Amino acid sequence: MAVWDIGDVTSSLILLIQQAFTTSPAWNNPVQPVVIPEIPGEQLDIGHNVIGIYLYHVKEQKEYGNFPVSGSDQPPVRVLPMAICLYYQVSARHYQENNDGTGALEEQQMMSVAMKVLHDYPFLDDASQINALPVFNNNLMGNENRFNISQQPIPYGDAVHNWTAGQSPLKLSAYYELSTVFLMPDQARSYSGRVLTYGNYIFLKGAPRITGSQNIIGYTIPGDSLQRQVKIQPAQTPPAKAPPAPVAIDSMISFFGSGFEGDSIQLRLINRSMNIPMFNNADWKLSLAGVNTINAIVREKALVEKTGVPADVLPGMYIAQIVVSRSLQLPNGQTRIVSNSSNQFPFIISPRIDNISALVGTVVTITGYIFQFFVAAIDILADKIDVYVGEKRMDRNKTVLFNPDEFKITAPNTMQINLAAPVNPGQQIPLRIIIDGAESGPLWIQT
């Protein structure tokens, strides 16, 4: 939702006005006027009628500069998009070889068409089209930009101060505000810590209701033989390796709530990015512990709800639902299965890191699950992976040369990180791998 060049915004307005003259019943001249991003003064003589849409002022909207940032970048405002309003003056100039006194009338006709189209398109976004043509150019398209256009009530006595055509007489003009344009920020180079608690305490009696999720992460600090454990709420669980590999404690998840009793229970998973509902399979070992707790083992595969086909469970933000099925005896003696779904509750399936290799020069190799996933020959995880070594963000390698402070994906379950020299022996450097908003457990690179 940001732009690199405000000239792309002006170009979109030029296209909008230019195309309006091709279909407007108010314009009966076979020669369409030229639309330019300047004031069409007398010094500009190109042999055509001209509409000028001139950007004469820019104002920053300071209220958008107070949002919190995710890391410790200084100054923090650099990683926030700069919000601005653009102010345009629209005016017309009639080209006339033989002055017969009708030029002012044709200028008013051109202004009528321009003002009408800017009135009829009060906002512009990716879906905006005129004459079957997208209004946005390629630089704006696909970035979720949305601009509002409104005419400014400039008092007639002040309009003369906005006309800057030198010795030319005052021209008919209209004034517009376009908001809000966000200029592209710098990329964040650091990332803050986790939020580990979440609460949801409202439930309906008798219906399945999830009030919390939890798992335990085990880790060992370098130089300490004692394995430590920490409870994570809501759960941030890496998938366990496929059977018969042993199940790590990190991959065991518990859901707390009420109304879980029934003839059968299922766990529905919805990936927030892909929006493909899936159900657990038998390997998840879904079980009821008491009346208020459901335990499960997060696995690499689950069943797509519509097809029942096994599919990969990718790291990311998920929605969990408990589906409880009960058998009801009908008056005619038949049995009916009734299923009831719980509320939607968030949890995280985090990347699993299996091994961090010893350094080879300045390069370390990471193996785990899963760093690359193709759909229709497109790697959908390519732009969703962030790697931090300490507080420093690593760049994604996109060239043949593997530079320091870069990482690259070498296989679906393997990546390499090139540390910046010099690398001092005996260091323990924190490593954070984040995929689609899901962060790996505590990790260290040992040099």
Question: How is this fold's topology laid out?
Answer:
Elements: H1 7-23, E1 34-36, E2 50-60, E3 82-93, H2 103-120, E4 123-124, E5 129-130, E6 133-134, E7 147-151, H3 156-162, E8 173-183, E9 209-219, E10 228-232, E11 236-237, E12 252-258, E13 264-271, E14 277-279, E15 287-289, E16 293-297, E17 301-304, E18 310-312, E19 316-329, E20 335-341, E21 345-349, E22 352-356, E23 363-369, E24 374-375, E25 378-379, E26 385-389, E27 392-396, E28 406-411, E29 414-418, E30 428-435, E31 438-439, E32 443-446
Parallel strand pairs: 1-2, 11-21, 27-28
Antiparallel strand pairs: 2-3, 3-8, 4-7, 5-6, 7-8, 9-10, 9-12, 12-16, 13-14, 13-19, 14-17, 15-16, 17-18, 19-20, 19-21, 22-23, 23-29, 24-25, 26-27, 26-30, 28-29, 30-31, 30-32
Which descriptors apply to this entry?
Immunoglobulin-like, about 40% strand, 3 domains, about 450 residues, nine-stranded mixed beta sheet, mainly beta
Q: What is the count of β-strands? A: 32
Q: Helical stretch count?
A: 3
Poorly predicted runs are 196-205
| Whole-number tally of structural domains | 3
Q: What is the distance, rounded to the nearest whole angstrom, between the alpha carbons of the first and last residues?
A: 40 Å
Average pLDDT, rounded to a whole number, is: 85
* Beta-strand residue fraction: 35-45%
**Which structural class should the secondary elements be placed in?**
mainly beta
Sheet with the most strands, sense and barrel status: 9 strands, mixed
Oligomer: single chain
Name the overall outline.
extended
Radius of gyration: 31 Å
Helix content: under 10%
